[in-house]
Amino acid sequence: MEFDFALIVESVPKMATGIGITLQLLVLATIIGTALAVCTVLMRISKIPLLSWPAMVYIYIFRGTPMLVQIFLIYYGLSQFQAVRDSFFWIALRDPFWCAIIAFSVNVGAYTAEILRGGIQGVDEGQLRAATALGLSKSQRFIHITTPIAIRLALPAFGNETVSLLKSTALASTITMFDITGVARTIMAQTFAPYEIFISAAIVYLFIAWFIQIGVALAERRFSRHMQR
Amino acid sequence: MIETKSTPIIQLQKVDKFFGEFQALKNVNLEVHKGQKVVVCGPSGSGKSTMIHCINRLEKHDNGRIVVAGIELNDSLKNIDAVRSEIGMVFQQFNLFPHLKVIDNLMLAPRLVRKVKKAEARKIAMTYLERVHIPEQAEKYPIQLSGGQQQRVAIARALCMNPEIMLFDEPTSALDPEMISEVLDVMVELAKEGMTMICVTHEMGFARSVADLMVFMDEGEIVESAVPDDFFANPKSERTKLFLSQILSH
């Protein structure tokens, strides 16, 4: 078989037309998912079972099932119900973009909630006792002591999660989205050169992942000034 | 609130504390008057720390009464806040906030709890950093300081809330030997200024020089309490004698 290096060079800019969709999926799902994760972890660590139980069930379901299955369920599954098609939510649910956003966001929400919980549990008990002794209220302790320390502890895992989400956005191509992978599949159908085309796609993903890693490294440095002796 | 000389600023009456089945405090009675310095000693696990944690409600006592500055410690959050505002606490492990600079460690509680303005809080913080002799460390993070310096910052942090009472929970136990005296010096200065203090410590030299009252605890009970001269020269209980012989023998 012949290896067409020129085709790779030629394809990379074409892949770039998919970057917009991939980045939109990544950024929106990260923002919505992180907001969801904050709510979820607050419920999850609550001592009230009525709050902690739904959070645990939510986390369990979305961490325990393949994301591809979730995407199919949301995009193909829900549309089978007349009630869904008649409802207000149909505006979003008939659109593959929003179905993908929903699937990615609830996943980020479930995983990040657990990441944040780890961070919160990693905060030293003694520092919280000191804050209590100084008279800080429960919410003041949570905002001024627990949160900044937990964020620092959770950052590396959060960076991992974001890179992982970047790669998961490729699944959107299975529901007709023209993200990087979607574009690659289209070009492949025209050129029958899967090797070159998917190498081009991989290069574009690597490029984005590189930026994410730099961003996380900067954030880590910003949040760990206090750890440099 | 009317305060007479005869009213103790801290009163523990028949206090019991349980951790599950384990009884950490058994019928503890203690009175501390304004300006008094009490040193609490005893073997590990004897309930010393638990007792002082109960005094500012870091632990909740199960039976008996605790009254601080005329305020009874019960489930009332208002009372708990009022008692905590009278008390500064210093811990064995310093417990500085690692993500905040020294100056911000000191300013946090005055700003959040007392609603002091930033400039004013900074002024208060610098005053107390000077009192513990490390104003030059203000802009550093806790991890950049030695253990002795960290503990002095912790003392300054407690003092910034202008407490009537200071509780010390083994303040020198986690320190390297060469750093113990710099912390004890600060505590002696504080004692001389008339602060009411309860110190859990095994530093008997410090105890002899500042304590008005020695308290010996074992197995959750106050076994013996006496003025230092009597306590060291004529301990009454066998358990006290044994303990003193163990810690003074070297």
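qc> The first strand of chain B starts at residue 10 and ends at 19.
qc> done
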